[in-house]
Amino acid sequence: MLMRTDPFRELDRLAQQLMGPGTWSKPSAMPMDAYREGDQYVVAFDLPGVTADAIDIDVERNMLTVRAERRPLATADDVKVELSERPLGVFSRQLVLADTLDTERIQADYDAGVLTLRIPIAERAKPRKIAIGSGSGRKEISS
Predict the structure, then answer these.
(1) In what order do the strands lie in the sheet with 40-46?
(2) Rg (CA), the chain
C-alpha cells in the first residue's frame, strides 16, 4: 500500500483542536473561489456536510456575509468516536462588493456541498455607445 506522508498534517489537526470549533462570535474561515463569467461574478464556497437551512447569506450596502454551521451528527448512546478530523462549528466569510455589482439580483444555489453565488454586473456599469449629435443647429443670442 502506498501512503503519502504530510509532516504538517498532525500540526494542523492539533492547532484546529486547540483553537476549537468556530462560534457565532468567532467563526472559522471557509475556502472559496471567485471568478468572472460573462456579465456576472461567481463566488463558490466549500461547505461539505452543511445543510442548506444552516446557511445564512446577508447583503448590507456593499458587504456580503455568508455564515454556515456544520453540526455534529446525531449518534446513539453506545457509539464511541474513534477519530474526528472534520471541523464542526460556525464558518463565515465577508466580501466587499464593488458598486458596479447589482446586489439586488444575487442568485444562490447549493449543490453537493458547494454554495455558488452569482452576482450580476449592474447595467449602469456595462460599456455602452454614446450617440453624437450634429452641431448644425446654431443659435444666436442677441441682447
Answers:
(1) 32-37, 40-46, 114-120, 107-111
(2) 25
- State the cell numbers at 12: 494542523
Residues of the chain with pLDDT under 70: 1-27, 135-143
pTM here is 0.68
What is the pLDDT at residue 15? Answer: 61
Buried b / exposed e over 118-139, threshold 16 CB at 10 Å, is ebbbbeeeeeeeeeeeeeeeee
Burial 24-50 (b: 16+ CB within 10 A, else e): eeebbebebeeeeeeebbebbbebeeb
Q: Which of 102, 110, 122 is nearest to 59 (CA)?
A: 102
Please report, as a single letter, which amino acid is at residue 30.
Answer: M
For the chain, helix, strand, coil in percent to 5 are 15, 35, 50
